[in-house]
Amino acid sequence: MAPFEIKDADPVTGGKFFIKMDIAETLVNADAEGRLTPGLATDWHVSDDGLEWRFALRQGVTFHDGSAFTAEAASKALNVARAKPGLLETAPIGPNGTAR
Length: 100
Fold this sequence. Notes:
Layout: H1 11-20, E1 28-30, E2 36-38, E3 41-46, E4 53-57, H2 71-82
Antiparallel strand pairs: 1-2, 3-4
């Protein structure tokens, strides 16, 4: 399969396609120079040691079912994505979204 083909409805495996269609969004995006830009996170701060990231989340965001986008929902989504094969499985995200 080509990288642009939809493999299934899981954004972890077909994320680029779903993001391009505005079906899924990320906490942060990157511009053409690789600089981070706001996504679902409007601002972020990184600890001096680089182990902790704190995100300010965009307000008023809801999922397709009407439930609110919260810090708990973001943490759960990151942990679900980390449990699957891919780049996030090696990310230093601990329980409740904390660094490990």
